[in-house]
Each structure stands twice: as C-alpha cells, then as structure tokens.
Amino acid sequence: MKKVLSLLLALAISITSLSFATSAFAADSSKCASITFCGTENNSLIDEALNAINECRKASNMAPLSLDNNLCEQAKQRAKDVFVYYDTQDMYLPNGDTVSSYIPTGIITTIYAFYDVPTYDSIKSQVKTYAAHSLLNSAQGVGVGFFTLNGITSMYVIYSQNQVTVPYTNFADTSVNATVNTLISNVSLRCQLEIVSGKSYVPLTALAYFNNGLSVSGVSLVNNQVTFKSSKPSVAKVKNNILYAKDNGSYSLTVSLNSNPALSSTESYVMSGIKKPKANITSVKSKKKKQITVSWKNNIKNVTGYEIQYSTSKKFTKKTTKTVTAKGKKVKSKKISKLKSKKTYYVRIRAYKNQSQGEKFYGKYSKTLKIKVK
Question: N or C: which terminal CB in the chain sees fewer CB atoms within 10 Å?
C-alpha cells in the first residue's frame, strides 16, 4: 500500500488525566459549519494496529499497550477530521480550535493515510518508527481510529502515559455518517445533477471539496444538509432538492449549507432539448345556458391530461381567468358550467404531464377561441 502521509506529532509530555469531550466550536461560530458525509469506521483494524504496535514494542523490550476506550473514540473522530482539515503540526481542529482542547497535553499523536484499506503489514511498517520511540517508553494506553472515504483510509493513533480505565471492545466495521465541525473557509460546495434517463426531473445533491484535507475528490453530503435555489423557475424549478425541467433556457443554481448559509456557491447551466407540444383546440360551443363545451384533438403522446383556461379577458389576466383540468390522455372534451350568460369568453388549452411532488410539465398553449355564452 502506498503511504500518503506519515508524521509524528509530539505534544508536551506530562502525566495528565484525559477525559472524553466532543470538539468545541471556535470562538466565532458564524465562520463554522457542520459537514456530514458517509464513510466506514474500520474498527476491525484497531486490534490489528494494537498487535502491530505491541510487536514493535516487544522487539525493543517495551511493555505492551492496552486499548483505551476514550482514546479510541477520540482517535476515531480525529481520523474523520483529517479528511476535512489537517496541518503538519496537528495543532488545530477543522473548526479552528486547538487539538489540545480536544486531546489534552500528555499525549503523543500520529497520523497515517493509505490508499485503500491497509493490511497488517502496511500498518506495522508505518507504526514501527514511533511505537517503540524512547518518548513512549512509559506509555500505557493507546487509542486507534480508522476511517475510509473515497478510497483513502486514515489512521490516527493516540499514545498516553495514563493507565487504561475502560478498555475498548468494538471491533466491527461500521458504515457511519461522520459529522465534522469546520471553518467554512476549509470547504467549497458544488452542485451535482444526477441525470435520470427519460425523466423531466432529477435529484440534486451537493459535493463538498476540502481545501486542506486528505480527501482530494468531492465528498457527497448526506441528510439534506443543503438548500438549492434556481434563478429562473420558469426554466428549471427546484422543490425539495429536486430539479424540474420546465423550458429551454439559461439558469443558475445556488447551493447553500443549512448549518451556515454563508457557505454557498452558484453555477450556471443551460436547459436544452425540451420539447413542449402544442395542444390543438378544435371548437368551443355553447348549447346550454351558462355552459360551454371545449373540444380538442387528443393526439399528444404521454400526457397526464389537459388544462383548460377560460377568461373574460383576451389577455387572460389573473383576476378574470379560471382554470380547470381534464384528466386522461384519451379525453378530448370538457364541459364548463356556471358561466355568465351573454358574456364573451376566451378559451385556450394545454397538455400536461405529472412529474412528482405535485409538479407538472406543461406543453404550449393552443390558439385562443372565443365564445358568447347563452
């Protein structure tokens, strides 16, 4: 396995009690955000790493270490953190706080990364340099965490001189949604369109790119963490993070992070290839008082139904216009009642097709016919 990163990060050595605590936000929370992405906790490798560490220590006549539960939980979180942000001195967390606020002094930490999931031999080849280091001669406890994301596995190791109080026992690999608190300056967002063949609507997702993390490719965000907005809903409408094609034309999509909308990006797109069939209205008749019958040719394929608009204004103003629907692709007429007698009405129709979430894709309006109601 090819090593991406291997470094020893030594903090001041002193006997210090260590308590487990979650990472705190930096002082200015307006500059921070929570990012959640899915990866794998390779807990089965923790025992492998312990064996490799102790094998190296045995060769140097050092006492074996034991896995500490609190240290392992902290190491597992840090194994996730480094995908978002790491610095060569391991001094700062992704949210700008110091590592010592999360892992107090009296600790030595090491970070490693591998392409793909490491083997016992590749783990041993990395830990051998520091597992038996003279600074760790009096170490007693160790915490190890592994996390795999986009084909890269990070390993974070914490050595402590403190005696283990609660042993670590979870060695089952687990797919998890990892949440990392980070400065928004560490992250950039991109829209991702998941094209579905034959659909007039597509789901929208967002990719996060981390400026100083192990992950070099875009990371898919989970759990509806973002909101999308279209600049032109008449061309591309967004509803519950689904993009609905409405017409040909240019538009832009803005994606913003819900936990901090200051993190956002906007990209331009062009909607093309949209065909909007024009409905063919054939007649409007008034054979009964206060009633008309609208007829059309039902020669448009793959429609859900037809929408009929009628108005006392030839401009179809909002106040004077009403709309009714005729469901079914085979329907070809619609009776409309309760109209004003002796009044002239303007009528037009268009076909529609259901998309999802109540959204409809509309064809072009037919020509307008007028009728004087009996």
Answer: C
**Residue 199 confidence class, pLDDT cut points 50, 70, 90:** confident
Tell me if 356 sits within 8 A of 201, measured CB to CB: yes
Domain ranges of the chain: 28-185, 186-271, 280-373
Predicted confidence (pLDDT) per residue in 137-193, tens digit: 889 999 999 999 999 999 999 999 888 989 999 999 999 999 999 999 999 999 987
Which long-range contacts (C-beta less than 8 Å, at least 24 apart) are formed by 360-365? 360/304, 361/200, 361/244, 361/245, 361/246, 362/246, 362/276, 362/307, 363/276, 363/277, 363/278, 363/279, 363/300, 363/303, 364/276, 364/277, 364/278, 364/279, 365/278, 365/279, 365/309
Look up the CATH architecture of domain 186-271.
Sandwich (2.60)
Q: How far is Cα of residue 170 from the mean position of the Cα atoms in its chain?
A: 28
- pTM (predicted TM-score): 0.78
Q: Spell out the residues 6+ positions from residue 314 whose beta carbon is closer than 8 angstroms to its own.
A: 346, 368, 370
| pLDDT tens figures, 103-147 | 865 678 888 889 888 999 999 998 988 888 888 888 999 999 999
Alpha-carbon distance 328 to 42, whole Å?
54
- Give the integer Cα–Cα distance in Å for 111 and 148: 14
**CATH class entry, domain 280-373:** mainly beta
